[in-house]
Model the fold of this input.
Amino acid sequence: MNKSEAKQRIKKLRELINHHRYLYHVLDKQEISDAALDSLKKELFNLEQKYPEFITPDSPTQRVGGLPLKKFEKIKHSQPMLSFNDAFSEEDMEDWEERIKKLLNEKGTVPDQGQSLSYFCELKFDGLAIELIYRTPTKGGYPILKTGSTRGDGIIGENVTQNLKTIDSIPLRLRREEEKEIIVRGEAIIFKKDFLKINKMREKAGLPVYANPRNVAAGSIRQLDPKITAQRNLTFFAYDLISNLGQTTHQEEHKILKDLGFKTNPYSRFCKDLKEVFEFREQWKKNREKLEYEIDGIVAIVNQNKIFQKLGVVGKAPRGAIAYKFPLKEAETIVEDIKIQVGRTGAVTPVACLKPVKVGGVTISRATLHNEDEIKRLGVKIGDTVIVGRAGDVIPEVVKILKELRTGKEKIFKMPKVCPFCGTKLVKPTEKVIWRCPNPKCQARQRRYLYHFVSKGAFNIEGLGPRIIDQLFEKNLISDPADIFQLKEGDLIPLEGFAEKAAENLISAIKAKKEIDFSRFIYALGLKEVGEETSALLAQKLKFKSEKLKIEELTEAFQKLSLEYLQSIKDIGPVAAQSIYDWFRQKQNIMFLEKLGKVGITIKNYQLPTTNYKLSGKTFVLTGSLTNLTREEAKEKIRNLGGKVSEAVSKKTDFVVVGREPGAKLEQAKKMGVKIISDKEFLKMFTTH
Done:
């Protein structure tokens, strides 16, 4: 074979090997045996060794090569590599959709000529995010892999090109000609069977085993010696095309990626609405163990690229995509201490301080113990080994005490008699189970009150969470909720995590909430025994002529209400009535209301939108996520037709509405013989006459 013939043979061998690589790794087909493919690779290697001038960067022989690196170079991403915000329930997902629809409304964007948003759903791999850059040679032709990098901090990653070349499912050369630079992103993962093999080898060698497949994938990619990476048998799934190749939807991106020669996940699916997203997630929650690799949820992405881009970014996450995680599992750990937490109404809650433990990939260090009686019921002691669990956005709980593991050194927890924050003697009415701090000026109570005031059911100020409130409180920038509405950008910039733009955004979010619904305002005030339902009931009962109220009008109206009248309102008990009556007659509360008026808070008067009260006198309890309504929408519909929503199942409950993933309320309803209806039956109540 002369030099010219060798050149042609090398070219054809490369094309044939790449063809079979594509069949195997992208199309899951195999036309020749592994042994035959190895034989082709061996011939190519021998020819290139004889004629090294014909070796090219995209040759299959270049997947492993070169000396180990001393360190990784840094590489800047052309666009930030973002991470996703998490959702754990259908309610979380509905809230997310509501937020993005509201933002699109504000931006004047109407998706699909007035139709609903559609989504593209993918499995959420438990691996390492990777970016690949391909460039066309100066003489033209097919783009060749130039650099591959890790996500890093989202802006700057590490150049791990040599290691990524060892992954067979990453093409060294793309399958179609493109003049522009091609940027692709995806996930490097390891299959379960390969993970187990590696751990068995480590056990035999007396080395510690890896905790999970993700650690192996991440560790393998960051090996300084590419030969070690090659031994790990990693796989790469492409899921994002950064370069513009004419795609208008995320679904089209996946098709283009496959055409370019990338392995894409065959289980990805277009979903026309959230209902189909829920079905997709439920399918893989049930079948995740059948997969060859680990997943911890699904990713839902707004399918229309223009809308996705219009939504922009918040923090380090795109607004138009979210990770919908699976319910978290249980784990065992040790109760290192039990501390006290004081809520906004003075309620004292014991909290277990745990030896940090990962539950479903999330580190947990605290779990609620609810109250003194619950501690006695569980029999938990400081030093106990316990099982903790956390599902969705529920606070971690101690599920069980492993008394068999006690050593005798465990200590009994004694409930304090005075508030650990202000020293005030705690009180507990004989018929109650909860201890309370009665001091309204207790700093712990004040902080919790601030958290409540800006929460979802109240003023709902997006971006103002406990961490920021704590900083504002500690720096004496706020002492009560009214101070929040007097903040300026300059007050926020010195705080940790605030740049000028972030400060502007939060101040804008605060200003936008100066007008609030009547019922939300009552709930925000945090009156003892007055929750969302009682707040809504009060808003319905108090009649005003004007659509918008000033604070002083509302204050005056409440001060005129007699205790007898409040007690006569159906569904407001004597304790709640007394709480409302007393609150509006305390000097410090009236001064606080006046302060809210001075900072510009106005109230939207409640107007019943219907004269049809066919649900009058009926009490509903909602559990699980409803198919076509958010929980807030369902509550509003019930109230508008004269019904009532309760958070707890009792003998007074008329209907328990069951959606997806119902909680303990379903079992309570069965035990009490309360009527249970599906969300479809529930919706019929609003359409039938």
Remarks:
- Residues 3-25 form the longest helix (23 residues).
- The chain has 25 helices and 25 strands.
- The domain at 86-325 is CATH 3.30.470.30 (D-amino Acid Aminotransferase; Chain A, domain 1).
